[in-house]
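just leaving the lab so this will be short. what follows is a protein written twice so to speak, once as letters and once as structure tokens for the fold. can you read through it and tell me how you think this chain folds. thanks a lot i owe you, the record is right below.

___
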Amino acid sequence: MDDRARPEETKHHHRGKSSESLLDKNSILAHLRIESGQVILDAGCGDGYMSKEFAKLTGSKGKVYALDPDPLSIDTLEAETTGTNIVPLVGDITIETKLPAGSIDLVYLSTVVHGFSKSQMKGFATETNRLLKPGGILAVIEIQKEDTPFGPPLEIRVSPEELKDMVGLRPVSLAEVGEHFYMQVFQK
């Protein structure tokens, strides 16, 4: 795909849609081994269902940044999580965020990467590398690049092999996290 914006009919929109019911949250959390005190960025958080799970595990000493470009989603999440360790932010992981460099233990994206153009993917890789602490983890969940009963068009899906080339971090694990979903984990 080139760097130009996609025509409207092929853009992939997520507002109001969630893969929550299709993913195995317990498997995801078991693979990520989240600990109390960690700082997590849930990029493209949508309604924040995983941010809430991460917040329980990081505890009062941890912090979860819930980042999404949709102000409505972030406003709703903010109203639901006031007084917790979740910090909802309107933003885009494909450009530089206001978060400090080297401050994040885990960057998590679920069913977002397939919607990135080449230039957005490059920006995402750059920003993720900037944000992660040394030894930090990037976890990407995507729909398998094969015919499935749901999901984005096959031509914009990303295979684990393609993802390795795009991210530029060391792959450490690959797991099935729901029927038709995989999670690839990378380390800085």
Notes: The two ends are 26 Å apart (CA to CA). Confidence is low (pLDDT under 50) at residues 1-16. Helices lie at 25-32, 49-58, 71-81, 118-131, 160-167. The chain has one domain: 20-187.
